[in-house]
């Protein structure tokens, strides 16, 4: 593997990690805590959307993030011929 | 059939299963012992990781933590799951590619430094030993409650069982018993939850039931819960009380700490490929989420159930008479974990927040909260009785609670013993030890670790509960940043990493000891542990994230001053970053 494609593979990896962690922070620290007052107008079963994100939504988002990352990286590994 | 006999059958059958698996999965090599020969299916490893992760505290304590605080303790739900995103993307695949057996192995080799390795061994041992004390005491309590033996006997039975399958099978035996333990604990947790959700909302899925209409009141369950709690002078369930900054930092500390705990990380050394390590983290979170999304529903429903049991006709009407209390209250009263005191002598039970008593309390002649003790840990254990489920469900809960405690204990014991036999003996003291000699050393250190954990479980230091903060603080402030920089900053040198670990560890330990006392000895704390004294309102439990930040900062400054890591180390890091060529287990 050349240095150049090595660099491209790594930056693609860093980009997907960066995007994933922005979403990771947004649903947990954002929607569930800091931004909760902004979402208080959206009712969910006797409470608001922020509460749902704190006790259910963030966990479900985390699962989607990991599987999405896995799928993306498997594709990337094949593209660069570095899969096992 | 007598409840005792039912419990005995469930617990006995599950233990026979664990020992059977241990005999089937004997370890023949160090690779078997430390990493199950890297042959574990990623989904199986996911379930084993879930059992490894979910301790007695998760199984028994989580619902109670949420029930008595509500929204504020969502931090535990997000913190203990969000860490897996960090694991999947920042640590697990690269460590699997690196192909060694332990966390200090990576830190020592990556930073070409025995000081770094030693700091990692110390952090690992302190974090894992403090963590294992709670598991052994938890197992002892579960035994004594369900099998009517005394605490000591219970603990010794638990220790003997863990000994049988972990000394014999190492990681291989532990992995397959953890798979069985996961099945036992998740079934035990879910069945009562489904019944309670059906009773309260008509919805069989607790995750949906939590946001459904409460059949008793005809309005949303959480709205009803908020109303009765506020009426009784408690904080509303869904409201945000306390510092936002502290809530964010606490969640972040739990996430980073989760990702940095060695007994979780080493589970990802057991899968065949790098891509399996990523996938396995996803499955681990799926299996964990099955319990963690049910726990908040169990918490809210149990809280409402208790209040409606005590106030069957509304909170301003006549409460439950002490003599008419249900059997489960009487049963738990005998354990001392639930206690009533008829302060106004009227024979009825009044349960409310007497620190913020509602206006009608005086008019009705209430003279203080009469449910004087309500241990939050009994919620899950009492759930089947509260929901009036048959005796076999109680037997299942007994087996489930023990499965949760034993599976976590075994994972921790493996992390401890491999740090001793592999990192201390093989890497530092006697590099020429034979494969057979190292396997024997691993078994002896495992036996030693079990003996130590049993001793500490029998004589728990008074500070046992607080030390969990220390375990997470250490993992977050020393191990996580060191591993992450080792992968993502190829120029990071040994001086930077060592400085970072010392600053991270030092600041976190100092902050914790300032408020909780030096070595947790009561009375030696320099400041009272109250929000007014905390710097920027950051509690000692939330400091791990700050310690991690200081670790990163110190490492980068020292690295800038002392020059980059040698070329061959940078080349090694380049190698870790691509999956190709991971292959089998590499001993060095």
Write the layout of secondary structure elements.
The complex is a heterodimer of chains A (84) and B (588).
Chain A: H1 3-34, H2 36-39, E1 43-44, E2 47-48, H3 49-79
Antiparallel strand pairs in A: 1-2
Helix pairs in contact in A: 1-3
Chain B: H1 3-24, H2 30-35, H3 42-53, H4 56-67, H5 74-98, H6 103-110, H7 114-147, H8 151-201, H9 206-209, H10 221-231, H11 244-260, H12 262-265, H13 274-292, H14 295-310, H15 327-335, E1 338-340, H16 360-363, E2 371-374, H17 378-386, H18 391-429, H19 435-458, H20 467-488, H21 494-516, H22 543-562, H23 567-576
Antiparallel strand pairs in B: 1-2
What features would you describe in this structure?
The complex is a heterodimer of chains A (84) and B (588). By secondary structure, chain A is mostly helical. Chain A has one domain (24-84). Chain A has 3 helices and 2 strands; from the N terminus they run ααββα. Chain A has helices spanning 3-34, 36-39, 49-79, and strands spanning 43-44, 47-48. The longest helix of chain A has 32 residues, at 3-34. Chain B has 588 residues and is mostly helical. Chain B has 2 domains: 3-300 and 389-475, Hydantoin permease, CATH 1.10.4160; 316-379, no CATH class. Chain B is 68% helix and 1% strand. Chain B has helices at 3-24, 30-35, 42-53, 56-67, 74-98, 103-110, 114-147, 151-201, 206-209, 221-231, 244-260, 262-265, 274-292, 295-310, 327-335, 360-363, 378-386, 391-429, 435-458, 467-488, 494-516, 543-562, 567-576; strands at residues 338-340, 371-374. In chain B, strands 1-2 form a two-stranded antiparallel ribbon. In chain B, α4 crosses α17 (378-386) and α7 (114-147) crosses α8. The longest helix of chain B is centred in the N-terminal third of the chain and has 51 residues, at 151-201. Chain B starts with a helix and ends in a 12-residue tail after the last helix. The mean pLDDT of chain B is 90. Chains A and B meet through α1, β2 and α3 of A and α5, α10, α11 and α13 of B.
């Amino acid at each position: 593997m050349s240095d150049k494609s090595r660099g491209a593979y790594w930056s693609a990896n860093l980009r997907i990690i960066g995007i994933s962690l922005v979403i990771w922070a947004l649903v947990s620290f954002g929607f569930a805590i800091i931004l909760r007052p902004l979402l208080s107008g959206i009712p969910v079963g006797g409470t608001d959307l922020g509460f749902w994100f704190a006790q259910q939504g963030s966990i479900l988002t985390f699962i989607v993030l990991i599987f999405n990352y896995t799928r993306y990286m498997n594709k990337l590994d094949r593209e660069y011929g570095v899969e096992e | 059939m007598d409840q005792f006999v039912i419990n005995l059958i469930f617990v006995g059958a599950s233990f026979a299963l664990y020992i059977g698996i241990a005999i089937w999965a004997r370890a023949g090599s160090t690779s078997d012992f430390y990493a199950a020969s890297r042959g574990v299916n990623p989904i199986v490893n996911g379930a084993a990781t879930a059992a490894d992760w979910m301790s007695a505290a998760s199984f028994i304590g989580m619902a109670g933590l949420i029930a008595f605080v509500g929204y504020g303790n969502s931090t535990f739900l997000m913190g203990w799951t969000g860490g897996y995103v960090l694991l999947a993307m920042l640590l697990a695949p690269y460590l699997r590619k690196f192909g060694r057996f332990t966390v200090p192995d990576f830190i020592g080799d990556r930073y070409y430094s025995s000081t770094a390795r030693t700091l990692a061994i110390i952090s690992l041992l302190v974090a894992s030993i403090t963590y294992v004390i709670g598991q052994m005491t938890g197992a002892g309590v579960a035994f004594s409650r369900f099998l009517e033996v005394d605490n000591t006997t219970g603990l010794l039975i638990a220790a003997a069982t863990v000994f049988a399958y972990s000394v014999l099978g190492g990681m291989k035996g532990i992995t397959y018993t953890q798979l069985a333990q996961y099945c036992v604990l998740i079934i035990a947790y879910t069945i009562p939850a489904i019944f309670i959700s059906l009773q309260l909302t008509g919805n069989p899925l607790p995750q949906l039931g939590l946001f459904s209409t409460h059949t008793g009141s005809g309005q949303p369950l959480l709205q009803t819960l908020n109303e009765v709690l506020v009426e009784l002078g408690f904080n509303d369930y869904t409201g945000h009380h306390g510092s936002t900054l502290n809530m964010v930092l606490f969640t972040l500390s739990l996430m980073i700490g989760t990702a940095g705990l060695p007994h979780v990380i080493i589970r990802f050394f057991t899968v065949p490929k790098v891509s399996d390590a990523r996938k396995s983290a996803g499955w681990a979170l799926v299996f964990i989420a099955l319990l963690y999304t049910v726990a908040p529903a169990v918490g809210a429903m149990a809280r409402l159930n208790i209040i409606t049991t005590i106030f069957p006709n509304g909170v301003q009407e006549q409460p439950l008479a002490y003599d008419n209390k249900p059997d489960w209250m009487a049963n738990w009263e005998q354990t001392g974990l639930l206690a009533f005191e008829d302060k106004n002598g009227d024979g009825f039970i009044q349960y409310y927040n007497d620190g913020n008593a509602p206006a009608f309390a005086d008019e009705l002649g209430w003279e203080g909260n009469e449910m004087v003790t309500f241990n939050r840990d009994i919620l899950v254990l009492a759930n089947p009785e509260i929901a009036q489920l048959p005796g076999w469900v109680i037997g299942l809960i007994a087996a489930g609670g023990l499965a949760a405690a034993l599976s976590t204990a075994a994972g921790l014991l493996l992390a401890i013993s491999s740090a001793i036999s592999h990192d201390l003996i093989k890497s530092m003291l006697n590099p020429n030890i034979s494969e057979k000699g190292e396997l024997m050393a691993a078994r002896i250190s495992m036996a030693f670790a079990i003996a130590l954990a049993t001793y500490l479980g029998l004589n728990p230091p008074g500070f046992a509960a607080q030390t969990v903060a220390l375990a997470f603080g250490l993992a977050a402030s020393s191990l996580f940043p060191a591993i992450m920089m080792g992968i993502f900053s190829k120029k990071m040198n040994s001086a930077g990493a060592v400085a970072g670990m010392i600053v991270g560890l030092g600041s976190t330990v100092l902050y914790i000891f300032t408020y909780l006392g030096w070595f947790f000895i009561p009375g030696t704390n320099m400041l009272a542990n109250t929000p007014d004294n905390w710097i920027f309102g950051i509690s000692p439990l939330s400091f791990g994230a700050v310690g991690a930040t200081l670790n990163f900062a110190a490492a980068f400054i020292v690295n800038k001053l002392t020059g980059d890591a040698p070329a061959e180390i940078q080349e090694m890091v380049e190698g870790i970053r691509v999956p190709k060529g991971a292959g089998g287990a590499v001993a060095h």
